[in-house]
Amino acid sequence: MTALHDDLGHPVPLPHPPRRVVSLVPSLTEALAVTVPDRLVGATDWCTHPADLDVARVRGTKNPSLAAVRELAPDLVVANQEENRELDVRRLREAGIPVWVTRIETLDDAFASMRRLLVDVLQVPAPAWLTAAEQAWAPPPGRGPRVAVAIWRDPWMWVGARTFTGDLLARLGCTNAVTAERYPQADPAAVDAELVLLPDEPYVFTADDGPEAFPGRATALVSGRQLTWYGPSLATARADLLDAVAGQSRMPRW
């Protein structure tokens, strides 16, 4: 196999399809574990799916143990531009370990990037879950509510523009009430939304911690995995989110 170029255009020399893969991205860990379980040898402590995942752990996404990664002798490490540090990617490459970096800001990015990683890099057929996910998000949405997605409190932080979650909201037919780019801070009173979604990651919003900040406005507790993960969960995320939004927004299901 000749050198392929990752999502950032960096050449990744691969003399053969990788057989020992370490993933530093929870979403991609799940995709690899479901598709090529025999090749996944390491993952971060934050890689929680599948629930029975049994591979070596290499610490977190932002602070991986590079020594632990090297000890696993991978012929490929999978990383993501947003979730992982450029410094760690560079040091792994300097140690002679090929690193494939993904860049995913939209659903279409997710589908294309995962297909390239699995089909072109690992040289396996496109898995059924990926086809199912693409089909699940294909129907055009109707009109949805004006939505804000909180990701932290103290200070309050939100999902903004040019993010995977923001694009997912648009594909649901919703309007993102937060127009600043990426993950801005804003007081809840300043966010003009009909519905506030409160996920359980990275901040663990609960019925007792979050909804009380939005008197008179609809809120819904949702799985952060439905909003931010782009692996096999995408096959069911659209239907689950439509149910959550329609059930809490005081608007008809669309």
UniProtKB/TrEMBL annotation:
It comes from Klenkia brasiliensis. Belongs to the bacterial solute-binding protein 8 family. SUPFAM superfamilies: Helical backbone' metal receptor. Coiled coil: none annotated. InterPro entries: ABC_Transporter_SBP (IPR050902), Vit_B12_bind_prot (IPR054828). This is Cobalamin-binding protein. It comes from the Bacteria.
